[in-house]
Amino acid sequence: MQPAGPSGLQYQVTHGMINDAALPPPVLRETYEFVRLVREYNNGELYGRLIQIFDQDYVEQSADMDGTVSRLEQLVENHSELREALKRLQVQVKVDNYILRIKDRLAMDGLIRYNEILEGFTSGQKSTTKMVEEIALLFANHMDLFAEFCELFPGGSNFIR
């Protein structure tokens, strides 16, 4: 059982803490990185267009996410490094939305268990098979979450039979 204080996993998850250092949520880090890359791309027009997209879509809160993504994809279509940064941002947004669905459906305890399972896998303490078995058990009553996990995890389409 994880301690409840600042070193505990639940505290770290709810307070955005890792190793006692506050970190921005991953989607914000990817957004900052994307904006930084566009700004440093030595193309003032590109950066100006990015700011216009953000002004129109977020400051005015008038656009749908699909429209924003489409405009961003058009903005970077001829710049491979920026396309890759945008793809990373899109993946992180999907992952963050997935994590929120886990938290909503399974509450904080389920999210903590999910993170513990993944930590065991990434640290080498669990095999891929063991991790998938534990995730499947955790999501036994939420097959849509398990199916989405399989979509997000590299090679995960092999997990569903």
TrEMBL record:
<dbReference type="GO" id="GO:0006355">
    <property type="term" value="P:regulation of DNA-templated transcription"/>
</dbReference>
<keyword id="KW-0539">Nucleus</keyword>
<dbReference type="InterPro" id="IPR003822">
    <property type="entry name" value="PAH"/>
</dbReference>
<dbReference type="GO" id="GO:0005634">
    <property type="term" value="C:nucleus"/>
</dbReference>
<protein>
    <submittedName>
        <fullName>Uncharacterized protein</fullName>
    </submittedName>
</protein>
<dbReference type="Pfam" id="PF02671">
    <property type="entry name" value="PAH"/>
</dbReference>
<dbReference type="InterPro" id="IPR036600">
    <property type="entry name" value="PAH_sf"/>
</dbReference>
